[in-house]
Design brief:
Largest sheet: 4 strands, antiparallel
Strand content: 15-25%
CATH class of the largest domain: Alpha Beta
Number of domains: 2
Number of helices: 6
CATH topology of the largest domain: Gyrase A, domain 2
Distance between the termini: 126 Å
Radius of gyration: 45 Å
CATH architecture of the largest domain: 2-Layer Sandwich
Order of helices and strands: HHHHEEHEEH
Strand order of the largest sheet: 1-2-4-3
Oligomer: single chain
C-alpha cells in the first residue's frame, strides 16, 4: 500500500544554489575591484602627465644636472687614469733639446709620433755637430736607438742637412720620472 503524506516536506539541497550565489558575488566584487583600481591608475596617470607638463622645465634641468653629474664622475675617473698613465713629454723634449748644440740656429723641424720615435731635422750643421748630437742622444737612458736617416750637403761649404730618428723606450721614461 501506498502511503501518501501531503503535509511532509521534502528536504532540498541549497548548497549548489548557495555556492553559485557566492561565486557570483565574489566575481562581481573582483570585477568592481579591478574596475576601480583601473580607474584609480588612470587618474594617477593623468595627474602624473599633468604634473610632467607643468614641471617640464624643472624636469629637463634635473635631467641635465644628472647628465652633468655622470659626466663629472666619469671625468674624475678618467683624470685619475690619465694622471697615472701620463707621458712625461715635457721632460723628454727638454732632455732631447739639451743634447743639441745651439738648436735655435740648426733645428729645422721636430716631430714625435705615437710609436715613440722622435725625428729631428737639423740644417746648416757641421759633421762634427751631427756626430756629437748622435753620441749624446745614444747616451741618454731612455733612448734605445739613434739613426741617421738622411744627410744632404747644402750650398754652404761643409754644412749639411741631417735627419735624425731617435727611438724612445717608454718604460725607461716612466722609471726616470
Amino acid at each position: 500500500m501506498f502511503e501518501l503524506n501531503f503535509f511532509e516536506k521534502k528536504k532540498t539541497n541549497f548548497l549548489p544554489h548557495l555556492l553559485t550565489a557566492l561565486f557570483a558575488v565574489l566575481l562581481l566584487l573582483s570585477g568592481l575591484y579591478f574596475f576601480f583600481s583601473y580607474q584609480n591608475y588612470v587618474n594617477i596617470d593623468k595627474d602624473n602627465q599633468y604634473w610632467l607638463l607643468e614641471e617640464a622645465d624643472q624636469l629637463a634641468l634635473a635631467r641635465q644636472m644628472q647628465s652633468y653629474d655622470q659626466l663629472t664622475k666619469q671625468l674624475l675617473v678618467d683624470q685619475v687614469y690619465f694622471e697615472e698613465n701620463q707621458y712625461p713629454i715635457n721632460t723628454v723634449i727638454q732632455g732631447l733639446n739639451d743634447q743639441l748644440v745651439d738648436q735655435s740656429d740648426h733645428l729645422l723641424t721636430f716631430s714625435l709620433n705615437t710609436d715613440n720615435h722622435v725625428t729631428f731635422v737639423l740644417e746648416n750643421s757641421g759633421m762634427t755637430d751631427i756626430s756629437a748630437a748622435i753620441d749624446r742622444f745614444a747616451k741618454l737612458d731612455y733612448v734605445t736607438k739613434v739613426q741617421l736617416v738622411r744627410l744632404e750637403e747644402t750650398e754652404s761649404d761643409h754644412l749639411f742637412l741631417a735627419e735624425l730618428r731617435v727611438d724612445l723606450n717608454e718604460e725607461a721614461i716612466e722609471e726616470g720620472e
